[in-house]
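Colleagues,

For the teaching module next term, I've prepared a clean inverse folding example: a structure given as tokens, and then the sequence designed for it. I'd like students to try predicting residues themselves before seeing the answer, so please don't circulate the second half yet.
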């Protein structure tokens, strides 16, 4: 509100934001939204990469393949899409039903984000209710991908320990990768 004195009377008039203030506010909203889009996509990609490891370890590799052979196989499998990886794991019967039931909807949400979200969300910055729903959907996608990635990683580790890989070696390799990737 702006207060002015006209004669002896005080008058209050509302202060409306300037065009530049509106543009700045909208740019801030867009930046926050795109940060969430990026995070959700990143988490879905992390889960996809873990699925690739799952395919290599549980479906395609054989005992004694060696590190070089395993890495070459992993690079080949990483070229597959999330959907192709999930289909291969389902066909091989190596995913527990609870994971299958959660990974299917995650794939649908990932595909929505990559292929339709932008088109379906036009004008979202001008509709706060729509923006809130979009942010909630993105946050849910990111949380579900993160949760599933952790579950897959734990189950994969349990599998390889059962197959005879030393847990201390797994821990050393995990620590090396964490440091290399700059996560800690």
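(Answer key — instructors only)
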């Amino acid at each position: 509100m702006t207060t002015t004195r006209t004669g002896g009377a005080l008058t209050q008039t509302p202060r409306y934001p300037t065009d530049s203030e509106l543009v700045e506010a909208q740019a801030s909203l867009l930046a926050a939204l795109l940060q969430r889009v990026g995070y959700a996509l990143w988490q879905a990609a992390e889960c996809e990469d873990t699925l690739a490891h799952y395919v290599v370890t549980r479906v395609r590799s054989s005992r004694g393949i060696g590190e070089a052979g395993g890495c070459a196989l992993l690079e080949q499998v990483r070229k597959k899409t999330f959907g192709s990886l999930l289909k291969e794991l389902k066909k091989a019967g190596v995913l527990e039903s609870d994971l299958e039931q959660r990974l299917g909807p995650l794939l649908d949400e990932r595909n929505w984000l990559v292929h339709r979200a932008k088109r379906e969300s036009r004008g979202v910055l001008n509709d706060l209710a729509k923006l809130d729903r979009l942010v909630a959907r993105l946050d849910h996608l990111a949380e579900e991908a993160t949760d599933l990635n952790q579950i897959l990683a734990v189950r994969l580790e349990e599998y390889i320990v059962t197959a005879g890989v030393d847990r201390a070696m797994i821990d050393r390799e995990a620590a090396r990768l964490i440091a290399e990737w700059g996560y800690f």
